[in-house]
Amino acid sequence: MGVVAVIPARYGSARLPGKPLVNIGGKPLVRWVWERACRAKTVGRVIVATDDERIVQAVRDFGGEVVLTSLGHPSGTDRVAEVAEGLSTEVVVNVQGDEPFLDPRVIDQVVGRISEGDTPMATVARRIDKLERIWDSSVVKVVVDRRGYALYFSRSPVPFLRDLPREAWGKGGEFLEHIGLYAYTREFLLTLSRLTPTPLELAEKLEQLRALEHGYSIAVVETEYKSFGVDTPEDLKEARRRVRMS
Fold first, then answer.
1. Within 13 A of 234's CA, how many CA atoms are on the CB side?
2. Would you give the DSSP letter of residue 197?
3. Which residues, 6 or more positions from 135, have their beta carbon under 8 angstroms from its beta carbon?
């Protein structure tokens, strides 16, 4: 099965301008992500998809493959889909461009799940182990059915544990934190990018809800991997600290 990983890397960021090019331990952030994705055993090719010539040059400088995409994409998924238009691969993995410490085994997990052939899209989640993350709206929660398919994604705490006091909510392991890594069949990714945005997607600002609202299934793989994204100057400081300590 042909698998291509695509890393969307947009230059503009309200909280951290030029984020893909910020320096972490002597390397730009986008290179950290690219190197991690290249270590995945199931991936045959890794491509950076960007809207900026500065990122194009940076990726070429370290020997990576890069595609310059349209400036007008509203989401990373649309940027990945533009690259997928020119590919003949069976599976496309959307790798978030802000996770410098991504575990390559998680990519292999999600590719393994979609290779089972019963779903057009798969993603990843882990058990929440800190109470404050349940209430953090930047932490996306997902609930799944008994077969491991997503029922809903939300920024709110789901499920609502009606009979427990809120201070006890973090003790039962009922909450799954969504990790924004996706694998799609190429055909479905192109279909998804052409679907109209949906009411729940717009309300929650979560594009994966578009697939659910249009009636498609999303398989959820549970992992132990604890993601860390660089979204703010504080995150950048922490990433640099981790590199120094390693």
1. 0
2. P
3. 157
Measuring CA to CA, how many Å separate 39 from each of 9, 157, 190?
19, 34, 26
Residues in contact with 202: Cβ distance below 8 Å, sequence separation at least 6, in sequence order: none
For the chain, list the domains and their CATH numbers. 3-124+178-235 (3.90.550.10)
CA distance 41 to 139: 28
* Alpha carbon distance 93, 224 (integer Å): 19
Band of pLDDT at residue 130, cut at 50, 70 and 90? confident
Q: Judging by beta carbons within 10 Å of its beta carbon (0-12, 13-18, 19+), is residue 226 exposed, middle or buried? A: exposed
Q: How confident is the model at residue 207 (pLDDT cuts 50, 70, 90)?
A: very high
- Tell me which residue has tokens 């940027």: 79
Closest-CA residue to 42 (of 86, 119, 105, 89): 105
Distance CA(107)–CA(42), nearest Å, equals: 8
pTM: 0.94
Where does the chain have alpha helices with state H?
A: 29-38, 53-61, 76-85, 104-114, 131-135, 186-194, 199-204, 208-213, 233-245
166: which DSSP letter? Answer: G
241, burial (CB in 10 Å: exposed 0-12, middle 13-18, buried 19+): exposed
Q: What is the overall mean pLDDT for the chain? A: 93
pLDDT digits (tens, 9 = 90+) for 145-189: 999 999 999 999 999 988 888 888 876 568 999 999 999 999 999
Give the pLDDT band (50/70/90) at residue 12: confident
